[in-house]
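User: Please write out a complete single-protein record containing the residue sequence and its fold in token form, without commentary.

AI:
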Amino acid sequence: MNTVAVAGASGYAGGELLRYLAQHPTFDLIAACAAGRAGEALGTVHPQFSATPWADLILDETTPSVLGQADLVFAALPHGESAALVEQLPAETLVVDLGADFRLVSSDAWTAFYGGTHAGSWTYGLAELPGVRGQIAASTRVANPGCYPTAVALALAPLAHAAAIDSTDIVVVAASGTSGAGRKPSDSLLATSVMGSMSAYKVGGIHQHTPEMEQSIAAAAGEDPSAVRVSFTPLLAPMPRGIVATCSAPVRPGRDPGAIIRAAYSDEQFVTVLGEGQWPTTGAVLGTNGAQLQVSVDEHAGRVIVVSVIDNLGKGAAGQAIQNANLMLGLDEACGLDLIGIAP
């Protein structure tokens, strides 16, 4: 058994981590830590645990002394809060950070989109990117990708790797469920604002996930991030969870994007390229670590269009974190993870 601890257990991603950990055959949870809700029972904070043996588990204070007792720590904290905590953990402690603190290689990109001091970069934990799985397995510290960048990288990285697209002209329009904004209350997330309505936000190249998308696509292509340009427009959808990303770029002559993407994921258990005539739906991956893709070429515009769906709390956060932890500990990377969605 491997002992694990969760920092940020009271949030949506933290709760989803605990759900996966409750069904994981080799992970032993020794601490679930929270900030403002420390001292409360897990079944009170996350009612989905009320009928489980973990219902009366009391959330701990988020301290290095508590977390440092575990073999592996999941840090599901707000952006900018993980770095200070990790500094105080033992050097041998394995860490998967679900926040953005260690995702970006460029300190300039961090300052421009997040502000404050750049903490550095860790191994980028998207195993399906070319050559990354082995890096994760050899790492003690892994930066879990963001939810939007996961959906976009899965859609476009194989095409960039095969030099099948012009990476200087990528356009992404993606819609996310409300849980992607976290659990902190705000007027924009009230049911009266969200239900029966969709809205764009952070329009005009200012969303903090933009440089992460460019970085992962550039890495797949073997290029500098400055050679990639992504125009990203996010939308807030009236659903609790899920992401659907429509990603397009100019396709190079003589290339078959569908064949490239099918070949790239032919052996990947978490990524499914649907058959002709089928289109991805968020409901099909709800509650899983899976992703579904479909590819089309707009011959009139000369662009390839890849539609990608994930559960933002699954493959976009907690599920991917468990997948990374499995790889870091030499386990089957699907251990404890769901592969079948719960639609409808």
Notes: The radius of gyration is 19 Å. The mean pLDDT is 95. The longest helix spans residues 147-161.
